[in-house]
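job 3f2a | input accepted
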Amino acid sequence: MFRPTLILAAATLLSTGAFAQAQGVPLMKPPLAASGAAPAASAYKTITWEALVPANWDPFKEFRDTNLGALQDGDPRATEMLKRMRQVWDNAPVNPDLVGKPVRIPGFVVPLEDTKDGIKEFLLVPYFGACVHSPPPPSNQIIHVLPKSAVKNLHSMDAVWISGTLTNQQTDSYMGASSWRVEAVSVAPYAEQKAETKAR
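job 3f2a | predicted structure (200 res):
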C-alpha cells in the first residue's frame, strides 16, 4: 500500500542504516566526490556537503522512536509526521563557521529560472535526483545559486562545480527549501579526476 513519499523514504533509510555517515547527514545516494578536476580557484576553499551541517545536528532526532513502517496512507499520524518532518528539514540549521566564507563545492543542478539566454538561478543538491525524483533533502543540504550571468548549455541534474561566498539565506521554492545562498562567480562542468598512468 502506498504511503506518503517522505515517510516511505525515511522508513527505508532508517531501517537500512543509510544515514550512518559523518554528522548524520541524510544523503540518499552518494554525492559527488570533492576530488574531481575543477578550474583552479585558490581563493575558494573546496568543501564537502557534510561541512554545511552542524556537527551535532541529527535530521531524525525527533523521529527515531516512531515506527514509520507502520504508518499507512490516510493515517492522520502519517500526515502529521510528514508535516513535522518537512518543518524540521525545511528549517535545518547551518554550520555557522561557513557563513560568509568563499567556497567551492560540486553538486547537481535543479533549475529554477531557465531562459533562452541560459539558467539564471538554480538549486545545487548533493545527489542525483534530489528535489526531482525524491523528497527534497534538508534545507542545509540545498544551495540556492545565483550565477553572475546566465549559464548556457546547463540542464537539470548536470554535475557542476560552483565557487562563491556562502550566505545563510532561506529560500522557499517549488523544488525545495534551501538554507544556503551563493552568488556564484563560477559555474563549471564537473569532471572525475583520472589517475595518471606512466608508460613502462
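job 3f2a | The radius of gyration is 18 Å.
job 3f2a | closed
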